[in-house]
Amino acid sequence: MTELNIVQSINRTLRDAMRADPDVLLLGEDIGVNGGVFRATDGLIKEFGAERVIDTPLSETGIIGTAIGMALYGLKPVAEIQFLDFIYPAFDQIVSELAKFRYRSGGQYPAHVVIRSPYGGGIKGGLYHSQSTEAYFCHTAGIKVVVPSTPADARGLLLSAIDDADPVLFLEPKRIYRSLTGEVPEGADRIPFGRARVVREGTDVSVFAYGAMVPPSLEAAESLAKADISSEVVDLRTLVPLDEAAVIESVEKTGRAVIVHEAARFCGFGAELAALLAEKALYSLKAPVSRVTGFDTPFPYALENVYLPNPERIAHAARTAVRAS
Amino acid sequence: MVEPSSRAHASPSLGAGSFPEAGLIDAYRLMVLARVTDERCLMLQRQGRIGFYAPLMGQEAAQVGASRALAPEDWVFPAYRELAVALARGVSLRAIFDQLLGNSEDAIKGRQMPNHFGFRDINFVVASSPIGTQITQAVGAAMAAQRRHDPIVTIAFFGDGATSSNDFHAGLNFAGVFRTPTIFFCQNNQWAISMPRERQTRSATLAEKGAAYGIPGVVVDGNDVAAVYEAVRDARARAIAGEGPTMIEAEVYRFGPHSTSDDPKRYRSDQEVSVAKERDPIAHLRNQLLAAGKWNEEMERSLWEEVRARVTQTFEAAEKANPLDPKTIFDDVFATVIPRLAEERAEYDALVREGVLKP
Fold first, then answer.
1. ipTM value of the model?
2. Which residue in A55, A214, B8, B348 has the most C-beta neighbors within 10 A?
3. What is the pTM of this model?
4. Are residues B314 and B330 in the same domain?
């Protein structure tokens, strides 16, 4: 066990995966000599050389298109998209190509690419360095979507992503890249996809969150506890595949659900969770499901703290749910 | 499935030199097979026996010439008009028809429209509809081959319209920077659905676009199978020698519609088409063979008869194959079925069991 922050954990995990398997290679913008704009790949070019830590021209479609070609050929590319906000030039390659290769070839051509990308707000990044647009990808059949919230989960989930036989979008909560440290195991233990983690047990209300929204949800739970409201915080960890059983089980226990994400509300991932509860846990609900999310505006620069869900909004939603019944 | 690494040290199927004499008749047969298949498929679509078709007629020499310069170990990244490439690499006509029909024998399990086939056993990557996306992928596969030290090339097939796409520019740029063993094979058939070549770019040629990326560009007469063969052979030799990618523009003409979904009379004149047909690649090669005394009228008649009969028989046999099992709709989304899909499959089964849906 070593005490690491999330970005250090990712760095070390990439290093270990590359040491273990010569087919694993990295490509992206500024990831080699510069070590990545967030230093997630710092030092890796020194150990593995420019052939395995590839600084690419500035073209996201080039990065993902070539990564797909490498994967078809049998390598295990881990591509970095510098900010999730910049992924759209590669949207065609991800949605039309990567996610569909296995299916459209009748299973002949699986394409296993891991796409790492920092996402989310809270770093004064404005419109184009802050967005949380996981829902676009969750809506696309054929790609898995993973969002760790701790240094240990970052390792276990990234190892699973690199091992997986299918494409994985690995979203890194950049707001808590360095603010949060934790014990990280050194071995090769994977965290399987599709298993949520109950971060805090409770009986009155379930709070569902992922990535950078887990810490404010826990903070809200602390303040709720002072008012004798017992909240259960569930970190979804993987959005596709989703641990539906964990979501349902928690609501069956508490009867109330607050869904938290920083993405805009309309058609956001929370809508899927709310629909799931309506379909499979309606009779357990004692109060309407509520969503604490970013507003349905573009991501603002100066007012980002108005936009982002915070412990106060989360706690308020939980109190409202508890008072409703 | 052969792992790429086990194909190291493979040698090309053909050595240097111009198109092997003995291969010309074989090339001619392939081109006739592609032409007859095209004509038949256009008819089958009108009869409602297949849903869609994108003919290649006019591009047979370009496709067969390019294919004959490649080694079996090379990787082909096709667009959706590369029937003659697939046939030249040894795909059976039956496998093509199974794909056009989307029946239970289809290698891609009915997942895509006609012409979007793919065959792993001949390194013919499955095509898609978005234009140009295969170009960056071909470059990535070439980067992987470099990493594995496999002496192979990758070749991307695309049309004139694709030279306007994002991935064309990204792909050539990456190939130039990383000096990949890639051949960019553009069949300039003059029309991107209704848009003529001069509306795609102000460049004098498409081949010269390579220059911006430090890649040599070559224009070749795509109606001449030997000329195309030589251009691709040279590009392949350069790539294998570590000298990097080549951009080839094969000038051809799309005799048919873009697909069975459009009517070319709306955007081009019959006059233009008949002028282009005077340079029919099949007639061109036939005349060469006749002049060389290697072909005669009797051989000609019996070849077309034989090919037409074969096409008829093969299609009729493919039509008799079983339809796809509806439950295969849930396969191959992921390597293993995720819970959500398992649930949807169970939901479908229940609807069938309850008689809501027919099995």
1. 0.96
2. A214
3. 0.96
4. no
